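Table S7 (text form). Paired inputs.
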Amino acid sequence: MTAALSLRSVGPGVTVQDGGRHGFLRYGVTGAGPMDPFAHAVANRALGNPTDCAAVEVSLGGIDVTVEGGPVTVAIAGGDFQVTIDGQTLPAAVAARLEPGASLRVRAGPSGVWSYLAVAGGLDLPQVLGSSATHARTGMGGLDGRMLQAGDRLPVGMAMSEIATGRIVAPLLERPAESIRVLLGPQDDYFAPDQIAAFLAGPWTISMRGDRMACFLEGPRLSHKLGFNIPSDGVAMGAIQVPGEGLPIVLMADRQSTGGYPKIATVIGVDLGRLAQARPGTTIAFRAVSHTEAVRARAEEQSFLSSGIAIEPLTRSVFSSEFLLGLNLVDGWIDAQGRG
């Protein structure tokens, strides 16, 4: 019998995501993929998987999983979530072996919005246009093109070798969201200099309205120098549109393929996860950087991933951790996703 993850309970917004569906935006097909690409890559890299291997993206709603058919090794990375196996508390970033019947629970913890559950050997799911990434709005990818739910079964591929277990050592996962780096443009000329300054000064607050498609910001209303309509053009993940009401919208993994509002700036790739992990109510500011700095930050991130992820053996102390949860924000987010 092939090993599989059996899902006992699943909160809203939990999906299968790989590195994304690339090369089809020109046809109106959204890339999807992880909200926090770096955390997704860390979880896979810790297991020796390709960094774009399919994994479970766990939302604040959490997930309970049991193992069937044989032992599997899993890795979890992302937000500071609560992770337990058969009731024992583990670090939020960890690689662990699960025997058949073992119960893994991932729940929202002190910070972060997304955590990634990767499996050695990957998830054995069919691909659509070269990817297993779920885009639930169009019913594409993942498991039947939808969010996961209790009773689902995810087959696991064959792992190639023994995997070290323990705490994942990845300091770059600790990324406070107070300052998000951006490249100005491509339509920053639609805004007067004082409006660019207002955008960078903020402050901005993450709205409860956000989901995998976009992050909505609350703060000072920006005005347009040249109007708020442009010929629709392609949008990248991290593009910051400013519609007529003047409040910026950051387009995320499930964004539309084109947009007709001016884009004042674009979040650099390395900071996409930093923004995605900011909970509703978090106050942030944007900082304009050069193309050279953005490329350097990406190179540093890739160097970390390519050098191999260190695994530190667990000690008894990790089993006695206690967490204080921001339950009001978490419950509000879960309720908002359920309504969506």
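Next pair, protein 2 of 2.
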Amino acid sequence: MVKMLLGGMGKSVLIYFLTLLGALPLGLLVAFGRMSKVRPLQLVVKFYISVMRGTPLMLQLMVVFFGPYYLFRIPTGASYRFAAVIIGFVVNYAAYFAEIYRGGIEAIPRGQREAAQVLGYSRSRTFLTIILPQMVKRILPAITNEMITLVKDTSLAFAISYSEMFTLAKKIASSHTTLVPFVVAGVFYYVFNFLVAVVMERCEKRLSYYQ
């Protein structure tokens, strides 16, 4: 039982970090598309964000896993299950991160961009050296909230029968008629969230250089 739960913990942690690895940079690209002056691109990105935020993540995982077969008759076996989990989580969380990024970028006074332009800074240099550092500082609390939510959302992988921590705990509890696996799972999620909160709080303090 212990080995199974440890294996489930490892899978949940892997989902978590791979989701962040994909969703954080993708969210920035989506935010750029959302703020684009190209109207068709802006509308497509707005629709994507609306769908991702307006439908359950569980449903999105099912679409990603079963969609290729029902739409294009492409067979999806067990080997695709983990990839479907990561794809579903990444595209979902990228939409949320994109809106957080957009809020952070638009909160920067326009005068700073104009001043950088007067000094001869290119748009990319202005973003990397002036906008990005301030944006990161402003959005960190909101990003932290999403990262904590992601810890708990990893349990939704059960929707496509991927055996992460919570799914294994449920199977063990059913077969052994005991609540101990659920207690272990609850402790795991709490400790994981606690560690994430501690790390992000330290990051916030390091960025509070004017306080």
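The chain has one domain: 2-207.
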